């Protein structure tokens, strides 16, 4: 068995980078469809209200006035709150980060409905396992140092 540790590697002058992406990176968007209609909507605002009411960021006929809300939270995640009737491919409910029973953190491929409309969330994904190069425990070496903590996006100048 090899007892060599990552700290025992020769110093080649290379410093590992992190896998943390910039705030809002990954081109977050909704793919929207109904019958033969197809379109995309970029999630550029921190709060996107979806429904038929004037003033919503995304207005669609045949939906409740504010049928759903997508919030870009302080963890750089997009969270769906379904206010009206609809279906999702994930169970809405209490998870580790949200206590609202009608909210869920969206991941690429998550879908939901509002009236006759179907929405699919898409975001280019980046490895962020808390280890250099996006590595994982049990990877190349058994002793992998953690990368710096995830940025505090609340204080980011990018926002």
Would you kindly provide a brief summary of this structure?
The protein has strands at residues 29-34, 37-42, 47-51, 58-59, 68-72, 78-82, 103-105, 111-114, 117-122. A five-stranded mixed sheet has the order 4-3-5-6-7, with no helix packed on it.
Task: Note the main attributes of this structure.
159 residues, mainly beta, Tumour Suppressor Smad4, five-stranded mixed sheet, four-stranded antiparallel sheet, SMAD_FHA_dom_sf
- Compute the number of strand runs: 9
**In oligomeric terms, what are we looking at?**
single chain
> What percent of the residues sit in helical stretches (DSSP H or I)?
under 10%
Q: Determine Rg (CA atoms, Å).
A: 20 Å
Q: Helix segment count?
A: 0
Biggest β-sheet description: 5 strands, mixed
SSE ordering: EEEEEEEEE
- The best one-word shape is elongated
Give the overall average pLDDT: 77
CATH topology of the domain at 29-122: Tumour Suppressor Smad4
CATH structural class of the domain at 29-122: Mainly Beta
**Helix-strand makeup class:** mainly beta
The CATH architecture assignment of the domain at 29-122 turns out to be Sandwich
Strands of the largest sheet, in order across it? Answer: 4-3-5-6-7
Distance between the termini: 48 Å
Biased composition (Basic and acidic residues): 1-12
InterPro entries: SMAD_FHA_dom_sf
Protein name: FHA domain-containing protein
Organism: Microbacterium aurugineum
